[in-house]
Specification:
72 residues, mainly beta, three-stranded antiparallel sheet, two-stranded antiparallel sheet, binds zinc ion
Amino acid sequence: MLEYDAGDRSCSRHSVTERIPLLTTPGTFGGIRPWFACPGCGKRCAVLYELGGHFRCQECHHLTYGSTCATG
Ligand SMILES: [Zn+2]
């Protein structure tokens, strides 16, 4: 049996009201492909990340795949 405390998140409620533009590009088979337009850099991104109530692409959040251990 496992017991844990899920906590009460009601104190940290905040609303995210940022407008995220949507871009579309022609798809390979005649459809369209939707993209998010990053509010930070304007690039089109398949995924946006929400941090601190703002949606940004991973580059704006300084997220990188396979990040090396950059110390200093
Ligand atoms: Zn960005």
